């Protein structure tokens, strides 16, 4: 944590419908985590709700703060009791419609906090991608869609590429979302085409949707 100049962090993995309890790893105070989890605060957490609308990192301050409070200011009111008030959140989406959010928090508002986070944003986004790849495997272990995907040996990154391509995103746009160069995204798609034994990316997308290897929803 000291490397990124933060006091606490929280990683949360969930699906859009909250069909199961979210997977959470955090250094927040134990009392707050119990209140948050058993009180089902994640259902109304403005940071999590806002994360579902974003593909880029966002601050909890300034204009973003007003947008977040419009969702539900009560969660912020409660978390401030535990000095969880200033933060920055990174977002990742997966091929099964899940969302992972990594929130970096400081107990004291410092002018250079966001600048330090932005300077290390690439490292933090990569850390989130790596954590999400491991966590999502466990989170969806009993999901039949995972078993379907596994027989084709698609990696989480390949699933994500196909998912975003199915949403009409270009390779360049997918690269921005996932934090990779465009040529890397093309290599992932070429690998998917080969594994699914189809002619091109368009066929790979349609076959993935047909076999429910990915979610067709954004």
TrEMBL record:
Which GO BP terms apply?
A: regulation of DNA-templated transcription
Annotated HTH luxR-type domain residues? 147-212
Q: Which UniProt keywords apply?
A: DNA-binding, Transcription, Transcription regulation
Q: Which SUPFAM superfamilies match?
A: C-terminal effector domain of the bipartite response regulators, Pheromone-binding domain of LuxR-like quorum-sensing transcription factors
Output the Pfam families linked to this UniProt entry. Autoind_bind (PF03472), GerE (PF00196)
Which molecular function GO terms apply here?
DNA binding
Q: What SMART domains is this protein classified in?
A: HTH_LUXR
Name this polypeptide is given: HTH luxR-type domain-containing protein
Recite the lineage of the species. Answer: Bacteria, Pseudomonadati, Pseudomonadota, Gammaproteobacteria, Oceanospirillales
């Amino acid at each position: 944590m000291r490397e990124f100049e933060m006091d606490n962090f929280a990683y949360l993995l969930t699906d859009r419908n909250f069909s199961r309890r979210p997977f959470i790893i955090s250094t927040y105070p134990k009392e707050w985590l119990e209140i948050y989890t058993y009180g089902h605060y994640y259902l109304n957490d403005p940071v999590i709700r806002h994360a579902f609308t974003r593909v880029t990192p966002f601050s909890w301050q300034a204009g973003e703060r007003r947008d977040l409070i419009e969702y539900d200011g009560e969660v912020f009111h409660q978390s401030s009791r535990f000095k969880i008030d200033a933060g920055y959140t990174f977002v990742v989406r997966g091929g099964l419609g899940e969302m992972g959010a990594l929130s970096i928090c400081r107990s004291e508002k410092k002018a250079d906090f966001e600048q330090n986070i932005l300077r290390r944003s690439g490292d933090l986004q990569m850390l989130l991608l790596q954590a999400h790849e491991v966590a999502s495997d466990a989170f969806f272990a009993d999901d039949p869609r995972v078993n379907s995907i596994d027989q084709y040996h698609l990696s989480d990154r390949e699933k994500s590429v196909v998912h975003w391509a199915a949403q009409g995103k270009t390779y360049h746009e997918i690269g921005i979302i996932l934090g990779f160069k465009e040529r890397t995204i093309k290599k992932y798609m070429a690998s998917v085409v080969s594994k699914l034994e189809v002619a091109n990316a368009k066929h790979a997308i349609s076959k993935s949707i047909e076999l429910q290897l990915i979610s067709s929803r954004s």
